[in-house]
Amino acid sequence: MPVVSIIAIISLPRIASYVGIGCSLVLAGVAIGDIAGTPGVAIIEGIVAVSALFISIATFAARSHN
């Protein structure tokens, strides 16, 4: 997934925010799936997913401001 998102962002920078949101949602899904097996890792993954989502939202705000 990271390689695909990097290639998509490099080739089409206008969709970087959408790719970031998609990747954060995928990571959130992985975190939800990991809750039963490894709850500590799932919490870390969830925090990273939320952080990535906030960064993607910030790129939307920056892009619309310009």
Characterization of the model:
85% of the residues lie in helices and 0% in strands. Helix 1 runs antiparallel to helix 2 and helix 2 packs antiparallel against helix 3 (39-65). It is elongated. It has one domain (2-65). With 66 residues, the chain is an all-alpha fold. It has three helices and no strands. It starts with a helix and ends with a helix.
Please indicate the count of domains: 1
Helical element count?
A: 3
Range of strand content = under 5%
The beta-strand count equals 0
Tell me the span between the first and last alpha carbons: 29 Å
State the gist of this model.
The protein is mainly alpha-helical. It contains three helices and no strands.
Highlighted features:
66 residues; mainly alpha; 85% helix; elongated
Structural topology:
Elements: H1 2-11, H2 16-34, H3 39-65
Helix pairs in contact: 1-2, 2-3
